[in-house]
Every structure is written in structure tokens, then in C-alpha cells.
Design a protein that fits this description.
By secondary structure, the protein is α/β, with parallel strands linked by helices. Helix content is about 40%, strand content about 15%. It contains 12 helices and 12 strands. The protein has helices at about 20-30, 50-55, 70-75, 80-85, 105-120, 135-145, 160-170, 175-180, 205-210, 225-230, 240-255, 265-279, and strands at about 10-15, 40, 60-65, 80, 90-95, 100-105, 125-130, 150-155, 170-175, 185-190, 210-215, 235-240. The protein has a 6-stranded mixed sheet, sandwiched between helices. Strand 11, helix 10 (about 225-230) and strand 12 form a beta-alpha-beta unit. It binds 2'-monophosphoadenosine-5'-diphosphate (ATR). 2'-monophosphoadenosine-5'-diphosphate binds near residues 133, 135, 157 and 158.
């Protein structure tokens, strides 16, 4: 079955050497009985537009965009999806039927799919506390509302940024001190704090009453943030590996018109990460 080499796809980033996107998309292609030509491309920090121009002029079919280029990609495209416009960031580039390269953002829907499909937690009617007010949080608000969340509270260390983000989408904002009293069924960490193992300054009661505590970061072991939530009695904790795979699946569907099965790919990467750490 293999041997079909599809037109080129890439992930643009810097650094990008450790990106799992090629393996994820290869696994999706495997579900179709195909191979895909998907590469990593490390782009100079001031070189996103030139790299994207050259890739699509050369017949590239689709690209993922990772840090730190999601805002540059948003500026580079001449056409944006509604969700990319709302997120202010682009993580997926694809060619529309008329050949124009469209900037889309599949991160938020990836988060929602992971929560509702892989974690099995309905968002409909739930109160969602969203920690952080940067790019990751911004992309999550509309998809959470679209999934039926009853309320979203944006909580940030710098309260003014939470207020600004919340006002954009008509939701509420708070600092960590006042957020403590807000009863949320779902708490999502969209801060970059987990990168450095930071804990969030919220009392145990917040975690204890949560149905799901979610960290957009992922690692071989539970992040310190998730360990804190679990120790305090969170019913369920999950890291962002499912979101990573689900955002990729949405991109793959845009490119190839095939909706991949997410669960086996998450399981395979998880097993690989655990094996690498056990060694
Ligand atoms: P991203 O695009 O990943 O969201 P960002 O735009 O730089 O990155 O935003 C980082 C977010 O993580 C911010 O909300 C930041 O809070 P401030 O706005 O107060 O800086 C939050 N953040 C980073 N480290 C944190 C920590 N240790 N504790 C709490 N919030 C943290």
C-alpha cells in the first residue's frame, strides 16, 4: 500500500527539532494506507514570511506553524478563517479550492476534542476556569463557548491582561485571589508556567471540586501543576498531548479530507515517551 508520496507538508518553527508533528501526520497517513512527505523546517527568527513564500511558491500543499511564528503566520496570510482571526494566531496553512493559502487555527478545537472525546468530559453547561491570558488562552475561549460552556472565567497573574482578553469575547476575568471562590467543573492551564514547573496559586478547594483539570503542556510524567491538582482531589487530570494530536488531526482533515483516529496516535506517543524516560 505504501509508496504513494504525497505533495510536501511542513512544520515551521524555531526550535523545531523535537516536534512530534512529522510522526503524528505520518501515523494519520498510515491510517489511510499512505505515506506523506512531511518535514520539519527550522526558520530563522526573522524569516517566516520568506520561508512561507518559498514553500507555497514551490508547490507546498500545507503547513503547520509552531512557536514562535503563529502571530507572523497570522500577518502573512491574505485570508484567515474565523477561528484564526479570533485567536489572533495561525497554526495551520492550507490551500483553498481557489488556490489561495488560508490561515487557520486548530488549537482550540483540538483542546475541545481532547476534553470531550478522549477525556470523555462534556463541556456543555460547564463552568470553565481558564488560567492564563496569552496566545494559548486566547485561542481557547471561542471553541470552549462553541462547545457549550456555560461560563468561562479568564484568570491571570496580570489581571489587566485577563480583563482585556475576557472583554474581547464577552466573558469574565479575575486574578488568582478572587478566582479561588469561583466553582469550576473544568480548569485549564493555558499559562506557560508548566514549562518551568510552576504551580498555580489557587487553594485545594478549586482542584477538589473539579471534574477535570487540564494542562496544555505535556511531558512523560504528570506536570507539577497536574500533580498538585491530583493530590488535592481533582476527579480527573489530563495533559496536552491529546490536544497536540487533535489539533494535528484537524489540520490533516483540512489538507487531505480524511478525519484521522486520534486515540491510537496519542497512545503510541505516550508509550514512546514513557519508554524513553524509563530507559
Ligand atoms: P502563550 O502564547 O503560551 O500563551 P504568552 O503569550 O507569553 O504565552 O503568555 C504566557 C501566559 O502565562 C501569561 O498569561 C502569563 O501571565 P502574565 O500575563 O501575568 O505574565 C502566564 N504565566 C507565565 N508564567 C506564569 C507563572 N509562573 N504563574 C502564572 N502565570 C504565568
Amino acid at each position: 500500500m505504501f509508496g504513494f508520496v504525497m505533495p510536501d507538508y511542513v512544520v515551521f518553527g524555531n526550535p523545531v527539532a523535537h516536534s512530534r508533528s512529522p510522526a503524528i501526520h505520518q501515523a494519520f497517513a498510515g491510517q489511510q494506507g499512505l505515506a506523506i512527505d512531511y518535514r520539519r523546517q527550522c526558520v530563522p527568527l526573522d524569516g517566516f514570511a520568506a520561508a512561507a513564500d518559498a514553500f507555497f511558491a514551490g508547490g507546498g500543499q500545507g503547513a503547520n506553524v509552531t512557536l514562535p511564528f503563529k502571530t507572523e503566520a497570522h500577518a502573512w496570510v491574505s485570508r484567515l478563517s474565523e477561528r484564526a482571526a479570533a485567536a489572533g494566531a495561525v497554526n495551520t496553512l492550507y490551500r483553498a479550492a481557489d488556490g489561495v493559502v488560508v490561515g487557520d487555527n486548530t488549537d482550540g478545537i483540538g483542546l475541545v476534542r481532547d476534553i470531550t472525546q478522549l477525556q470523555g468530559v462534556a463541556l456543555s453547561g460547564k463552568r470553565v476556569m481558564l488560567l492564563g491570558a496569552g496566545g494559548a488562552a486566547r485561542g481557547a475561549v471561542l471553541p470552549l463557548l462553541a462547545a457549550g460552556a456555560a461560563a468561562v472565567l479568564v484568570v491571570n497573574r496580570t489581571v489587566a491582561k485577563a480583563e482585556q482578553l475576557a472583554a474581547r469575547f464577552g466573558v469574565s476575568a479575575a486574578g488568582f485571589d478572587t478566582a479561588a471562590a469561583w466553582p469550576a467543573e473544568v480548569v485549564i492551564n493555558a499559562t506557560s508556567g508548566s514549562l518551568s514547573g510552576a504551580l498555580m496559586p489557587l487553594p485545594d478547594a478549586v482542584w477538589a471540586r473539579a471534574e477535570l483539570v487540564y494542562d496544555m503542556m505535556y511531558a512523560a510524567e504528570l506536570t507539577p501543576f497536574l500533580r498538585q491538582a491530583q493530590a488535592a482531589g481533582a476527579a480527573r487530570v489530563a495533559d496536552g498531548l491529546g490536544m497536540l494530536v487533535a489539533q494535528a488531526a484537524e489540520a490533516y482533515a483540512l489538507w487531505r479530507g480524511f478525519v484521522p483516529d486520534i486515540a491510537p496516535v496519542v497512545a503510541a506517543i505516550r508509550a514512546e515517551m514513557e519508554a524513553a524516560c524509563a530507559g
